[in-house]
Amino acid sequence: MASAVDSFRAYLRIKTVHPTPDYAPVGPFLASYAARGGFEFQELTLVPGHPVFIVTWAGADPAAPSIVLLSHMDVVPVDMGKWTMDPWGGALIDGKVYGRGAQDMKCVGVQYLETLLRLKGVVVDPSVAPLAAPPLRTVHVLFVPDEEVGGSRGIKPLLAHPAWASLNPGFLLDEGLASPSPSFSVFYGERKIWWVRFKATGPAGHGSRFVPHTAVQQLHKVLARVEAYHEAQREALAGACSCGKQLGDFTTANVTMLSAGNPDPKTPQFNVIPTEAHAGVDIRIPATVNLAEFKATLDAWCAVEGGGVTWEPLAQVCGEGPLMLANPTEPVEGPDAHWFRVFSGAVAAAGYSLHAPSIFPAATDSRWVRLMSGTPCLGFSPMRNTPILLHDHECVTRAPARSAATPSRTPNAHAHYPTLQRVFVGGGLRGGPCRIRQGTPRALLRRVVQKIGSTGP
Predict the structure, then answer these.
(1) 74 included as an active-site residue
(2) Catalytic residue (one of 104, 114, 125, 147)
(3) Neighbours of 401 (CB within 10 A)
(4) Which listed site, 201, 297, 309, 455, has its alpha carbon 20 to 30 Å from 261?
């Protein structure tokens, strides 16, 4: 029987890399997991060539809202010249596993499945107490395509399809980030992605003349404003570190694409002033920013002399209409913060600590889940004492190093099955907001942890 690490390495060897990810081999890989655990397995193809796979552990109460564990299958491209290891080899060297997707996020998907095997008792692990009966709530592990390119062929069509409602989701866990410290990181929201195209138009002319308000001149003025705003936010972050604010609390606006003139590099036309100039800007906006007001800021940036600059969002990433101007978060304080209280209590019961909850600095599929379905979400990747290397030239996670005395508690242990056990169980496998009969979620959690094999209320 393959170990968890061996299965993880096998998953890394499946080249689900953009721009042409091969998702087909993931199906048999996940189906074997489902067969091993006696779980249901389903394949949905809502977009040709982009399947969604669902592994389901049926609960004792089909009417109870389910727990959804979300994982994307795709990975970003690699620059082979910058890697010392084969990014598709899944090499295990000195306790470290190398490969594209090692952190983002194939390790998390495998941890979900391995944890369920242990909770069901299929895999015997001295650090995990199996459940004595099926969970009250159904658990769905979703593997979706195309998260890295906006989710338009993955989570978004799934959310719009009746199949999503049939899952009856009550709470969802998605990816977070590795933590370089002994504490885990957890995220209750995300910065809003606005990928924006600026377009400037102006007069044509010969490159030897003084031509006013050219497209390039106007675009340059707009981008100067973008860069000034970006730099002010960078300085604000540097000055705020002592009060606990993080990258996710500030707006970044990075110019990532520029174009003007003859697009054919083999026949450049240096002496022709182009009538159009374009720029692509990757803007990430905290949940605390009023998006309607920020939209007005972009309009103001484009109000340059000459009047030839416009901007438009990339709808597949930003959302359209009301979705573009919305950025919900999961409550972490107050009476509505049930799921975060249960989650954080579960982590504490497992003997670990959390950093203060924060806004995810990039973006995940959770943003579409919150926007399109309203399902409560938290971002959590069970990796600690590990540098953040997602999308880096050398993606590494650590294989669990265990000892008989302290199973899964050594600094290098990142298959945190005890943590996930309490998170999943305390998070509602045997109860939740609709099932609390015992005062508070914390009381429910203590009851679950103390009597892990008991039936739900």
Answers:
(1) yes
(2) 147
(3) 13
(4) 297
